[in-house]
Amino acid sequence: MALTFSLQAECGVTRARAGIMTLPHYNVKTPVFMPVGTQGTMKGLLPEQLEDLDCEIILGNTYHLGNRPGTDVLKKVGGLHKFMAWNRALLTDSGGFQMVSLLKLAEITEEGVKFKSPYDGSEVMLTPEKSIEIQNCIGADIIMQLDDVVQTTFQDNERIKEATERTSRWLDRCLKAHSRPLEQSIFPIVQGLLNSQLRRQSAEDHMRKNVNGFAIGGLSGGEAKDEFWPMVSLSTEVLDTKRPRYLMGVGVAVDLVVCVALGVDMFDCVFPTRTARFGCALVKTGQLNLKQKQYETDLRPIDKDCSCSTCKNYTRAYIHCIVSVETVACHLISVHNIAFQQYVI
């Protein structure tokens, strides 16, 4: 099988659990945080450094990889694993999130999503079939269905209903188009935004499909925690306990802890590396903005209890000195921030 999931332990009070996902390229311990390497690279880090940080699975972006390097190159080289020299597991999103992030460029119909490419201005139609074709070329262990994505705080109930139901229809097209079911697992994406009835309907629809795991989408888009967490709880309540559950786009420490307790097994987010590019290091009390003058003479590591190479070898003062002028500062903070995410999870 392309994926097997074995539970190793379960909490007696919450829905938290620990497990192992056996994938074609690696056995991944859950719960797990997946750093995001949009175009087959983690900004500021090499694949071997991610291995040193004990990252077992990372994420790539189908839309961007489909544009550059493109499927022809990926086919020739034998997939993204070989292209980026990564020997562990990969997950790719479907390109659906670009409906939100590039909405000014998008026209959404039942056929798919029409984009004007930000690379060359050409018109691109991303259909469920095309998304799966690209992901089959990329060769990730876990791939996502194309879903109809709406901004979480959107208020038009008819549009939310349309997107939720279309996502279920597109799932059927994705499963039919999938050419590598023994090597790659498609995860359906639970939609419904903050509408509990639609979210339950979406989860129940997906539960009836022959799939190896599930994704929870349509959240972490600006809504309040007291709206976000109940929707996660509702989703995990409906979804099968014997298959892994992936909460998309979530990476803030408090959300990781709460959502693990709610029964989530997998997370991804650009947060740790994007935060690093702004000179901010993640710590248990929040963030340290190492650009601030208060760190100019601070000879402590970012976190005295952290065992990452940055904290072992460099001080806050050193990083403060180079943070605005040297790209190596982003590299050093990224190493720490990913180590911090691994610690939290």
Describe this structure in words.
- The strands form 5 sheets. Strands 4-15-14-13-12 form a 5-stranded parallel beta sheet.
- β10 (142-144), α6 and β11 form a beta-alpha-beta unit.
- It has helices at residues 47-52, 62-77, 80-84, 98-101, 128-138, 157-177, 196-207, 225-238, 253-261, 271-277, 309-313, 316-322, 327-344, and strands at residues 4-10, 17-22, 27-30, 32-35, 57-60, 89-92, 106-108, 113-116, 123-126, 142-144, 185-187, 189-190, 214-216, 245-247, 266-269, 280-283, 286-289.
- α2 (62-77) packs across α5 (128-138).
- It contains 13 helices and 17 strands.
- The protein has 345 residues and is an alpha/beta fold.
- Helix content is 39%, strand content 19%.
Gross morphology is globular
Low-confidence runs of at least 5 consecutive residues = none
**Terminal residue distance:** 27 Å
Beta-strand segment tally? 17
Helix/strand/pairing category: alpha/beta
User: How would you sum up the major sheet?
Assistant: 5 strands, parallel
Number of helices: 13
- Give helix and strand order, one letter per element, not per position: EEEEHEHHEHEEEHEHEEHEHEHEHEEHHH
Beta-strand content bin? 15-25%
Keywords: Cytoplasm, Glycosyltransferase, Metal-binding, Transferase, tRNA processing, Zinc
GO molecular function: metal ion binding; tRNA-guanosine(34) queuine transglycosylase activity
EC number: 2.4.2.64
Subunit structure: Heterodimer of a catalytic subunit and an accessory subunit.
